[in-house]
Structure formats: C-alpha cells, structure tokens
Amino acid sequence: MADLERGGVRLHYELHGSNGDIPLLLTHGFGASSQMWAPNVAALAAERPVITWDMRGHGRSGCPAEQAEYTQEACLADMVALLEMCGASRAVVGGQSLGGYLSLAFWLACPERVAALVLSDTGPGFRNETARQRWNSRASETATRLEQDGLAAQSVGLAHAARGMLTQQDRRVIDSLPSIDVPVLVILGADDRPFLSAAEYMAAKIPSAEHVVIPSAGHSCNLDQPELFNQHVLKFLARLNER
C-alpha cells in the first residue's frame, strides 16, 4: 500500500505479489476504487505482480479542485508513472468499464508498454457522433447529480471525473481496434446487457481477441463470479507465458 505524487495529485496504489517480470495493471470503473479487485488479487498475483490503483477523484487518491486536472490524458500519464514507480517497462493492462476503455486508450497512446489487454465489462467508445453525444450527456447529468446530492470533496472529485474522464471526445479508440497487435481477453457478465454487443464488436474487430461471457454475472463480473473470472484471466495469462 503506497502513494505516488504526480503534479500535486496524490495517487493511491498497491503492488501485490512479486513473481514474474511483467505485472498486471488493473484499473477500476467510474465511481469505484481499487477495492473492487479485492476478490481477485490473491489469485491473480500468484504468478505475476498485480498493480491496483485509485484513479484521481476516486477512493484514496486525491481530488484536485480544478476540472482541468481530470482528463483521460492525465489518467494515461498516471498509469505510465505507476509502471515506472513499480519498475516495469511493460504490463498486461486491464480494467473494468471506464478502466477497460482507458486500457484501450493506453494501448493506443503507449503500445510499447502493453504486453496484453484484459477488457472487463467495457466498450470501445462510439464511432457515431450522435451516440457519443448521448453518452457524454449522461455523464454530464451524473456529474450534476453528484454535485447536488453528494457530500464533501469525494463527490466533487467524482463530478469532475464524470465530466473529464468519463466523456469521450473522438472515435480514435474504436477505430484502433483492428490495429491491436497484442493478445486480448474480452470478458463480461451474461447479464451485462448494455455491453454485450460492445464486447462482441471488440472480439470481432481485434485480431487476437478471446471472448468470454460469464453466466449469472452483471456489469462487475469479477465481483459477481470472482472464481470464474479469476480462472479465465489466469488461463489467458498462462497462455502469454507460453508465447
């Protein structure tokens, strides 16, 4: 359990396990924290280090007052800094929901740092501008609701994160899918209906993608069915070791 300072913003992270040289970097979804990986880290860290962290505005990380501090670009730079702090030049990069989208964006920005991707209950964004605007409008509504109903700095941080990190500005991530040249695990719950078609789309467009649907699980399949989630991720990681 440790903290990293970046430009005056405190980032909380944890490094689990010590075996292996390529860690697994896991990023949580919007409104969650690194605690969402609690049922998974012990199993996943048996063969390689696992890094979990709280995005800015979330969990035990800092909540800057300025909206400008909450951008996807800042999150990607945070992820680079975390890898460097842990002495890793590359990682298997994964995440749930927003964390999965950021993992795709991380590959696009820093492909040399990505050994593989684990995309859990997430989507690649929108090619259609109207659909993207609808998504962004919902994110803005979430921010307003947090400001009106929330408490203290954490709600301010989440509201800023909704406006700056949850919104999507262009189609670069979804357009990049056919270019992804590392192994990819697309995994989600069978009951996560809003993301079923997005997962199918990613699995079809990414050349080296494996698609897994976990039964009796929703938008956080790692929490709803942790044993099944761990089994599938461990099998995927084991195949990386064979390459």
What does this structure look like?
The chain is an alpha/beta fold and 243 residues long. The chain has one domain (2-125, 170-242): Alpha/Beta hydrolase fold, catalytic domain (Rossmann fold, 3-Layer(aba) Sandwich). Helix content is 42%, strand content 19%. The chain contains nine helices and eight strands. The protein has helices at residues 41-44, 72-85, 98-109, 129-149, 152-164, 172-175, 193-205, 221-224, 226-242, and strands at residues 2-6, 9-16, 24-27, 50-53, 91-96, 114-120, 184-189, 209-214. It has an eight-stranded mixed β-sheet with strand order 1-2-4-3-5-6-7-8, with helices on both faces. α7 links the parallel β7 and β8 (209-214). α4 packs antiparallel against α5. The longest helix is centred in the middle third of the chain and has 21 residues, at 129-149. It is globular and about 50 Å long. The model has no long low-confidence stretch (mean pLDDT 94).
